[in-house]
Amino acid sequence: MKKLAKRYKAMVDSFDVDKVYSLEEAVNILKNNATAKFDESMEISMNLGVDPRKADQLVRGTVSLPHGVGKKVKVLVLAKAPKDQEALDAGADYAGLDEYLEKIKGGWTDIDVIISTPDVMGQVGRLGRVLGPRGLMPNPKSGTVTFDVANAVNEVKAGKIEYRVDKTGNVQAAVGKCSFDAQKLVDNVNTVFTSVMRNRPQTVKGRYINSVTISPTMGAGVKVEEQSFTVAENN
C-alpha cells in the first residue's frame, strides 16, 4: 500500500488536479505517469446531464475503436450447431450452448463478451440474475444477439466496445492501454466521445456534457476540456 500511495502522490504532484486540460495534454500526463509494473488501461468517464430514471434519457451505444482496446477479449458465443462452429472459426474463445449455460448457472463468468443467436435467447434470458449485474447479457442493440455470429465475433475482437449510462449519469469506457502511441489514444477517445454525442437523447434540454475525465487503472484522473475533442463529421 505504501508503494501505491507513493506512486499516487507523485502522479498528483505532476499536474494540477483542479485544472482542465486539452485532450492531448491529458493523454500525455497519463502516459508519463504510467509507472505500474503492468501495462495500465486508460478509461474515459463522462458525466452527462441526463436523468437515467427516464427511459427516453438512457444513453447506450456501441462503437468500434480504431486502434482496439489493447487486450485479448474473451468471447463466448451461445448457439446451436452449426453456428457454434461458425463462431469458433471466426475466433471465438468458446462456443456452444447447454455446456456453457450450465457453467454460467454454476457461477462461471470468466469472459468479457457473450454473443447469442436469437433462437436461444429464451434460455439465455433465464440467466439474467447472473449475467445482468456483470454487463454480460446479450442485447440486440449492442449487436450481441444475431445470427451473423462470425461478424459479431470479428467486431468485438477488433475493438468494438459497449457503453451505458449508469444511475448516477456517468458513462465509462476503456479507450486503450497507456503504452499506446499518444495519437492512437487520442483517436480512440475522440471516437467514444463522438458516439456519446451522437446518442444525445432528444428530450435532454440544456447542458449534455457536464464533465469529462480520463484516468489510468492505478492513478488519478485528469479533467479534459470539452472543446478539445474532435467530433467526427461522418461515420
Write structural notes for this entry.
There is one protein chain. By secondary structure, this protein is α/β, with parallel strands linked by helices. It folds into two domains: 17-69 and 160-228, Ribulose 1,5 Bisphosphate Carboxylase/Oxygenase, CATH 3.30.190.20; 75-158, Ribosomal protein L1/L10, domain II (Rossmann fold, 3-Layer(aba) Sandwich). Helices cover 31% and strands 21% of the residues. The chain has eight helices and ten strands. Strands 1-10-9-2-8 form a five-stranded mixed sheet. Strand 4, helix 3 and strand 5 form a beta-alpha-beta unit. Helix 3 (83-90) runs parallel beside helix 7. It is globular, with a radius of gyration of 19 Å. It starts with a helix and ends in an 11-residue tail after the last strand. The relative contact order is 0.26. The mean pLDDT is 92.
Oligomer, anyone?
Answer: single chain
Could you give the order of strands across the largest sheet? 1-10-9-2-8
Q: What's the tally of helices?
A: 8
The poorly predicted ranges are none
Structural class given helices, strands, pairing? alpha/beta
Q: Provide the domain count.
A: 2
Q: What would you say the CATH architecture of the largest domain is?
A: 2-Layer Sandwich
The biggest sheet, with number of strands, parallel, antiparallel or mixed sense and barrel status, is: 5 strands, mixed
Q: Radius of gyration, Cα only, in angstroms?
A: 19 Å
Proportion of beta-strand residues: 15-25%
Topology of this structure?
Elements: H1 2-13, E1 20-21, H2 23-32, E2 41-48, E3 60-64, E4 75-78, H3 83-90, E5 94-96, H4 98-105, E6 113-116, H5 121-125, H6 128-131, H7 149-158, E7 160-164, E8 170-177, H8 182-198, E9 209-216, E10 222-224
Parallel strand pairs: 1-10, 4-5, 4-6
Antiparallel strand pairs: 2-8, 2-9, 3-7, 9-10
Helix pairs in contact: 2-8, 3-7
